[in-house]
Amino acid sequence: FAELAGIGVIDLEPNRGATIHCFSKREIQDVCRVRRALECEAIRGAIHRIPQTILAKLDQEFRDLANGPIQGKKNILRARKLDSQLHDTIAAHCGNEFLNRELQRLSKLFRSFRDASWIESEAREDCDRLSEEAKEHAAIITALIARDKKSAILEMGRHISASSKYWARGIVYPDKTINS
Q: Of the candidates 65, 63, 66, 46, which has an alpha carbon nearest to the alpha carbon of residue 144?
């Protein structure tokens, strides 16, 4: 609980226990600004360190995923796994162990936003964002394969900005609606 409270996923209240934190649109945007700074820094370090074989495999997986609507539990789970794998690969190869650990710690928060918004999309049968996200990931990987640091950073920034808008638009709480 302390770890989840530390990254803001839950609120610990004396004599009441833990409750899930209801994020405002502003809080989601602030989290994404920090995420963009950290992930783009990780790209700077990882650009020449990620083996081409790993990138080629991820490239093929994301291109397969992006070529159609991502519907059904199996495909959504595959998209989640690949999303985590790409971001974890970048962090693991960034050459900065502190940054890697911080991204791993914060990934629980980022993935809780992702998963909540994807559940909402699935409930609305709106899987367009999942395909868009796969294309964003493919663009990041293309830049990483080319060892084009500027493009990789740009594509990661675009991806995180798009995610931020999507997360803020799609997460709804009983007493707090988050709309663009």
A: 46
Tens place of pLDDT per residue across the chain (180 aa) = 666 666 666 666 777 777 666 777 787 788 889 999 999 999 999 999 999 999 999 999 988 887 766 666 777 788 889 999 999 999 999 999 999 999 998 888 777 777 766 666 555 555 567 778 888 999 999 999 999 999 999 999 999 988 877 666 655 444 444 333
CA–centroid distance for 156 within its chain? 10
Closest CA to 89 of 52, 126, 132, 131: 52
Q: Where are the beta strands (DSSP E) in the chain?
A: 10-13, 17-20, 172-173, 176-177
Taking CA atoms, 73 is separated from 38, 55, 95, 113, 127, in Å, by 30, 25, 35, 18, 11
Task: List, in order, residues 6 or more apart from 29 with CB less than 8 Å away.
Answer: 164, 168
Provide the whole-model pTM: 0.79
> How far apart are the C-alpha atoms of 36 and 167, rounded to whole Å?
14
Could you tell me if 107 and 34 are in contact, meaning their C-beta atoms sit under 8 angstroms apart? Answer: no
Evaluate whether 164 touches 25 at the Cβ level (below 8 Å): no
